[in-house]
Amino acid sequence: MIGLALATLAGWLLAGTGSARAFTAAVAVLIIACPCALGLATPTALLVGTGRGAQLGILIKGPEVLESTRRVDTVVLDKTGTVTTGAMELIRVVPALGEEAGELLRVAGALESASEHPIARAVVRAAVERQGELPAVREFSNTDGLGVEGLVEERAVVVGRPRLLADRALALPTELREALAAAEADGSTAVVVAWDGRARGILVVADTVKPTSAEAVARLRALGLTPILLTGDNAPAARRIAAQVGIEEVIAEVLPAEKAERIRRLQSGGSVVAMVGDGVNDAAALAQADLGLAMGTGTDAAIEAGDLTLVSGDLRAASDAIRLSRAPWRPSRATCSGRFRTMSLLCHLLRRACSTR
Q1: pLDDT recorded at residue 345
Q2: DSSP string over 224-290
Q3: Which of 32, 49, 78, 103 is least surrounded by CB atoms within 10 angstroms?
Q4: CA distance linking residue 94 with residue 214, whole number of Å
Q5: Average pLDDT of every residue of the chain
């Protein structure tokens, strides 16, 4: 049937008709001779795509995801755990005047032990290593994106961003404001520790970029996509990470509840958005995006909200997923003119379907 269609194409071209008419006649021959191709071609191509995705460590929830993925032009990347390792380390403890660094870390570590946030895990790890067993925490509460509160040894303890302390009418002494500014200037992340109505010190943590993140961003750019870094972290820290991996646009200091709204703004501006994230705080944004890509090393909430799961946690798999999704829809260059993309795609799918019979 393929040979007959090609002969038809050649005959019409030799007869002096235009290429559009000749190509139409050739496709008509295929449709008449192999009518089931229209029903077989697309599902066959999508089945191949989802199967190949599984081989590459990309779990696709349904074949319809592949169709939506090919339209993506913007990729929003969460920072912690996606672009970076998420394995933060405590690098500095700065007590206020009259406070002890050891006690500051012990109390903060006790409160953070009830939290699952990467910053909390870094603080708890350091507190256990340096101070040993930590006291229990009661009446623990979490304010999304800002910090945590609770009772530790009958002290009302707050650990979080300066914004949280401002909301609690807790002022920072001069030495802590200076230490906070220094931490943000070098791209680190700092949280303030307070109890019984006074700020007692700050804890400075730092994250590292995954070795493959810069290459992953370069691959996304090569596919014609615009990468954007989205994070709740402070702007200097976000810009430092973005510069290391080659991202120019940064959206920083965003609360978890605001991430989905940021995605909506991009969509309302005409962008078709893919979101890559790994945490509970990313779930709403993953669901809002035209395509949600969840890191397999992340939380169950993120994986459930995403359309694709990147099993390995390697950000390069995001570009593999986009490239894979485009493959079933790519026109065949050998037989089709670029001027007739729609007919080219039909020809490609028909040819693949008939060849499987």
Answers
A1: 47
A2: T-EEEEE-SS-HHHHHHHHHHHT--EEE-S--HHHHHHHHHHHHHTT--EEEEE-SGGGHHHHHHSS
A3: 32
A4: 32
A5: 81
